[in-house]
Amino acid sequence: MNIVLLGPPGAGKGTQAKLLEERRGMVQLSTGDMLRAAVASGSDIGREAKAVMDAGRLMPDDVMIRIISERIDDASSAGGFILDGFPRTVAQAEALDRLLAEKGIALDAVIQLAVDDQALVDRIATRAKEAAAAGERRTDDTAETLRKRLAVYHEQTAPILPFYREQGRLHMIDGMASIDDVARQIEAVMAAKED
Ligand code: AMP
């Protein structure tokens, strides 16, 4: 089964993707993690990504589409993929459809974790504190960058929702619930698809 997890920054996409990896043997494809690895490696893309991420903006669509297309076949055959952080624009969603059609790979469900903005501000503050305590501070987890990332989410990423709704693929779940409850809601969507 191949799915997309959608939702604003801090909605819990990464947490849920990790649970799906453990429970179902699926593969998380987190474009944010890929970009952070590129930053750590000091590559050209990494240098560009650091500036873009710290400003709370988005990387160019063509770069992201290339990165995803390199990984998606292996993930799909390994146990199914969970796209986390991609697509983030309508252009990326359209490119993903084309890419999957070319490769003959199905996208089974698009699951939106609905969370309100104030809860996200609180969650990111907690995540920043936890990461700082573990010595792995994310330079984009600051109040100012979060405001910018939320604005970018509403302007550029939220328009993906009607795109997938019109395709009949969108499932909205309550991302404000506990981690276990959100996991149960995701499981219910996936189980219905497997019937
Ligand atoms: P994330 O870990 O998914 O919150 O991503 C962290 C940052 O990486 C984002 O704020 C963007 O700057 C960048 N990024 C991640 N995924 C994408 C994408 N699909 N398109 C453009 N930029 C992205």
Structural features, described:
There is one protein chain. The protein starts with a strand and ends with a helix. Helix 2 crosses helix 3, helix 4 packs across helix 5 and helix 6 crosses helix 7. The chain is built from nine helices and five strands. A five-stranded parallel β-sheet has the order 2-3-1-4-5, with helices on both faces. The model has no long low-confidence stretch (mean pLDDT 94). The longest helix has 18 residues. The protein is of the alpha/beta class. The structure holds adenosine monophosphate (AMP).
Bound small molecules, by name, code or SMILES, are: adenosine monophosphate
Unreliable parts: none
Helix-residue proportion: 55-70%
Mean pLDDT across residues: 94
Number of helices: 9
- Structural class by SSE content: alpha/beta
**CA-CA gap between termini:** 12 Å
In short:
The chain is α/β, with parallel strands linked by helices and 195 residues long. It is built from 9 helices and 5 strands; from the N terminus they run βαβαααβαβαααβα.
Primary descriptors:
single chain; 195 residues; alpha/beta; 5-stranded parallel β-sheet; globular; binds adenosine monophosphate
Q: Mind sketching the topology for me?
A:
Blueprint: E1 3-6, H1 13-24, E2 27-30, H2 31-41, H3 44-54, H4 61-78, E3 81-84, H5 90-103, E4 109-114, H6 117-133, H7 143-157, H8 160-166, E5 170-174, H9 179-194
Parallel strand pairs: 1-3, 1-4, 2-3, 4-5
Bound molecules: adenosine monophosphate (AMP).
